[in-house]
Design a protein that fits this description.
386 residues, mainly alpha
Length: 386
């Protein structure tokens, strides 16, 4: 789980009784009840006061104070807003209450989130996350410009699997701060939503699904392009942007964008890598090879580039084999490319990144190169990982 911030100190929220001599019977009673923590009776007296005096600024303020003490933040703010519309006498008290409950709600959210991280039962974990999300939401209501409140609310929603709900706090974060991670997270949410809807289109062939999918791709591109302008070296933003272009069938735009990036910053490995991915998907193997090799030259441990260079040689080799077969030419030239693929893919496996598809790919390469024992071993590993 994402590590959350904790406020280290809170100031005490103290209710001071006001002079009774100028108050109505209802207001006097309400203050006495509040002083004795009898909030139900206090609310009854305050409601009676409002029925008699609908513009009672003090009654609305006190109702807000009680709601805050009871943890009902939306009702607290609603009554504070009503008091503010009447006058400004309690403006300072209202601001102090908002700050206090912002901090209190935030720390409650952190406490619930931390309890969730220590719980092994899935149902209990999700319950604590939901409670945390509620408190983080309260903190943002109290202080709408609270960056850490929005950050943790977004993380809580993501942990809950409520990606749609995470959009609002992420959009607010971008508005007030906009870290590279914020842009990447929001862009990824839009991209994944588009992919999800597009999969529905492929299944049901509903034209409206296709339109909706492209709408989300466009939103992803808009967010990620803004993020790239601010954080041009952020690899997550660049990768997500290239994937968004591809899913939106804007390959030419993607190619031009990263080609320009490579020209402007030839030593930027992320530009090289993303440009290489686009070229690989466009079956331009020599050009993709050039970009991936340059990225690895810049960073010899750049695993993504290492993997994709291996894939480039593999696909290149298969294309050469297929062309030779169609032309009825006996040639083993394609094996040269497969041999080039092996060291890169084997190095990638050394990083610990492995799955069934990768081992199956290795099995095919070994088989084409006549390495029967290694091929059988690779296919066995692929089966074990399925």
């Amino acid at each position: 789980m994402k590590k959350l911030f904790v406020l280290t100190s809170l100031f005490a929220m103290i209710f001071g009784l006001m002079a009774f001599q100028c108050s109505s019977t209802e207001m006097t009673s309400a203050k006495m009840y509040i002083n004795n923590n009898n909030y139900e009776k206090a609310k009854e007296s305050l409601q009676k006061e409002i029925e008699k005096n609908p513009s009672s600024e003090e009654a609305f303020y006190l109702l807000g104070f009680i709601a805050g003490e009871e943890g009902d933040i939306p009702t607290m703010l609603n009554n504070f807003n009503k008091a503010t519309k009447v006058g400004t006498k309690f403006q300072k008290d209202i601001q102090q209450n908002r700050l206090y409950h912002w901090a209190t709600s935030f720390n409650k959210g952190v406490a619930f989130y931390n309890r969730a991280s220590k719980t092994t039962d899935t149902d209990s974990t999700m319950k604590f996350i939901e409670l945390a999300a509620t408190q983080f939401e309260y903190s943002t209501l109290c202080e709408p410009d609270s960056i850490i409140g929005y950050e943790n609310l977004a993380y809580a929603y993501m942990t809950m699997g409520e990606q749609d709900k995470a959009v609002t706090p992420l959009k607010k974060l971008i508005e007030v701060k906009g870290s590279a991670e914020n842009y990447a997270m929001l862009g990824e949410l839009y991209l994944n939503k588009g992919i999800e809807i597009n999969n529905e289109f492929l299944k049901d062939k509903n034209p409206q699904d296709s339109v909706r999918a492209f709408g989300y791709y466009d939103q992803a591109i808009s967010v990620l392009e803004k993020g790239r302008d601010i954080y041009p070296d952020d690899s997550s933003i660049l990768l997500l942007l290239s994937n968004s272009y591809i899913n939106a069938n804007k390959i030419d735009i993607a190619v031009d964008a990263f080609k320009a990036g490579v020209k402007a910053e030839p030593e930027n490995k992320y530009y090289r890598y993303n440009y290489g991915v686009l070229l690989l998907n466009d079956l331009k193997y020599p050009e993709a090879e050039e970009q991936f090799k340059k990225a690895i030259e810049i960073d010899p441990e750049y695993t993504n580039a290492i993997y994709n260079l291996g894939v480039t040689y593999f696909r290149w080799g298969l294309e050469m084999r297929d062309v030779a077969e169609k032309q009825e030419i006996e040639s083993d030239d394609y094996k040269e490319k497969l041999n080039l693929a092996l060291p890169y893919l084997e190095k990638y496996l050394e990083s610990g990144e492995e799955d069934a598809a990768l081992w199956e790919l290795m099995g095919k390469i070994y088989a084409n190169l006549g390495m029967t024992e290694k091929s059988n071993d690779a296919f066995s590993k692929a089966d074990a990982l399925r």
